Amino acid sequence: MTTTRPQTGDETGAQTGGPAGAPTSFGARLHAALADRGQLCAGIDPHAGLLAEWGLPDDVGGLERFAMTAVEAVAGEASVVKPQSAFYERFGSRGVAVLERVVATAREAGALVLLDVKRGDIGSTSQAYADAYLDPASPLAADAITASPYLGFGSLDPMIESARRHCAGVFVLALTSNKEGPEVQHARAVGPEPGAPDGRSVAGVVLDHLRALNAGVQPLGSFGAVVGATIGETTEDLAFNGPVLAPGYGAQGGTPADLRRIFGASAHAVLASTSRDLLRHGPDPVALRDAVRRGNDELADALADGADA
Questions:
Q1: Orotidine 5'-phosphate decarboxylase domain location, by residue (predicted)?
Q2: Neighbouring C-beta atoms of residue 207, cutoff 10 Å
């Protein structure tokens, strides 16, 4: 089953097109989902180690049992479900078919789907990625995707424009948790004159682009940043009127206190992403659902007054 999104409205503000003018931009849908279902983002990443922990074979049958058990258990509780595409693609076309079912099942249960693909290319190839993941006509269409800006932020224009057209979202890599990230993300950008630095870090340039894309949008912009929950201290301005995907939460060491410290007044727009810490509770669907509920309660307690931090 392929679901579709309304495609009408003002691209610069809260888009409309649903019943009684209900907001339908991704930012507006996410803002409502966070208020209704909490800030835990449920990653569904069926890597070989987790399949083994669940007692499943590392084949497409094991993939299907794992992924469908997980999504059916958590999608009715989580605001956002985030499948990592690579763990499905490794099984070829049959694995991608399972991913299509995961996307459809999550959306039928009322969760938003953030498809973690981290695509980044130029021109017609970038547009093809946008068509694959953001166009409602595609069986892989999600509410939002992750994207890499390291061919230049302008290379993402086809994805940005497609997201606007289809009321979808894009989360752009900015300050990731992996140890290799700083060699690119902390590097100083070059200004208009060849070889002349403009003073900003590469991550700062990415955040400034997002700030411009989300300017004036209410209640929340549709263009987000990926900022790790374990980055430690940063001098970057993380207030850009858009959502934040914070991987590294849970098993990788990120805590609610880290989120509040890193994001401060922007903590209300953070999606705390967890996969291993959540999925280790499977294959029991009740335990998976309870883990989502506990995670949301912990985040609510820690971040409710984050604006005062």
A1: 39-291
A2: 23
Amino acid at 174: A
**Of the candidates 103, 13, 25, 42, the residue with the CA atom closest to the CA atom of residue 294:** 42
Which pLDDT tens digit goes with each residue over 293-307? 999 999 999 987 544
Per residue in 31-42, pLDDT (tens digit) is 999 999 999 999
Give ∠ CA 129-181-258 in degrees, rounded to 5.
Answer: 105
Catalytic residues: 118
Among residues 303, 219, 221, 288, the alpha carbon closest in space to that of 68 is found at 288
Residue 44's SS3 state is strand
Instruction: Please report, as a single letter, which amino acid is at residue 133.
Output: Y
Strands (DSSP E) along the chain, which ranges?
40-44, 80-83, 112-119, 144-147, 169-175, 188-190, 197-201, 223-227, 244-246, 270-274
pTM over cut 0.85: yes
User: For 253-274, how does the pLDDT look when each residue is reduced to its tens digit (9 = 90+)?
Assistant: 888 989 999 999 999 999 999 9
Q: Are 173 and 118 in contact (CB under 8 A)?
A: yes
